Amino acid sequence: MSPTSAPTSPPVTEPATTLGRLSVVIPVLEAARHLPRCLTALRVASPGEVILADGGSTDGTAHIAEQEGVRLVQAPRGRGSQLAAGARAAQGDWLLFLHADTRLGPRWPGAAARFIAETGEAWRAGWFRLGFDEDSRAAARVARLANWRSRRLGLPYGDQGLLMPRTFYRALGGYNLYPLMEDVDLVRRIGRARLQELQATAWTSAQRYRRDGWVARPARNLSLLSLYFLGVPPDLLARLYR
Question: Which residues are within 8 A (CB) of 135 and not within 5 positions of it... i.e. 6 or more apart?
Fold first, then answer.
């Protein structure tokens, strides 16, 4: 199995850690297919709360939230709007922003707890290494490039998670209500020097890469990122993305 392929039944290599000060915020839209795996991985750490910011799902996402005992808040559709709404509803001292099709690996509770203990009240944010739920050379290559981008350029994407003190999030002004590039916008305001790699993996669905191609999709993402840096508005980028 390649180092970027998610194990089907990973052994728990870190003891379960209680992260009672942590609020996990997950934007959801028709997320019923992936959400149970995402929530199962979170459950081992007993976070203070899990908030699903729903942009209008009709596929059973709300039923899953009720079954799992997590909070569901309604928000205008759009990842930036949903993340901002979830953060406003959060009560924890620490915020973890996560995508619904991402499952954190078994080392995440210990990695998050260490980062929180070491950071204290300092203004820093942590991100997880990216991996895909596919055992292929193409998946490994894209994950390596994404992790290089995160380390060298300070540009982790939303599917790698983002852990930060609530006070820092508020000082930054929070997520802008962008339909696309909301993650890049926030990490640029954080700054590379205040971003830290966490020693755990975020296993993310490869569904979109399998559909669009392991070369074509990264190329399209890079094109959109370049246009964003050139000043193209996120609303227009979202239309191009779709």
Answer: 1, 2, 5
